[in-house]
Design a protein that fits this description.
The protein is an alpha+beta fold. It has one domain (about 1-95): Dimeric alpha+beta barrel (Alpha-Beta Plaits). Helices cover about 35% and strands about 30% of the residues. The chain has helices at about 15-25, 25-35, 60-70, 75-80, and strands spanning about 1-10, 40-45, 50-55, 85, 95. A hairpin with a 2-residue loop joins strand 2 and strand 3 (about 50-55). The longest helix is centred in the middle third of the chain and has 11 residues, at about 60-70. InterPro entries: Rham/fucose_mutarotase (IPR008000). It holds the Pfam family rhaM. It comes from Faecalicatena faecalis. This is L-rhamnose mutarotase.
């Protein structure tokens, strides 16, 4: 199992829209998340920051994430417009993957 933490900025003017979308996610999105090996997926908001955490249980992470992006393209079109990368994000990152520095089971 792989644990992933990510961060992105929430555009203040899009806060309400983003929260509304996640209060009633599209069924095909929640199915795709599960089908691509993601479990225990959470998104948190604090001010203009979003933090997500999930566990990946598959064995082909990059391929499953590419497949997830294809399966959820319509959803991402809606949610991505609500976000912008943090300053530390890579050139091709919207959500920036964080380095895990502590874990206790």
């Amino acid at each position: 199992m792989k644990r992933i933490g990510r961060i992105v900025k929430l555009k203040p003017q899009m806060r309400r829209r983003y929260i509304e979308l996640h209060s009633n996610p599209w069924p095909e999105v929640t199915k795709a998340i599960r089908d691509c090996g993601i479990r225990n997926f959470s998104i948190y908001v604090k001010g203009d920051l979003l933090f997500s955490y999930f566990e990946y249980i598959g064995d082909a992470y990059q391929e499953d994430m590419q497949r997830l992006n294809l399966l959820t393209a319509g959803w991402l079109k809606e949610t991505d417009q609500c976000q912008e990368p943090v300053a530390e994000a890579g050139a091709d990152e919207l959500w920036s993957v964080m380095e895990e520095i502590f874990y206790q089971e």
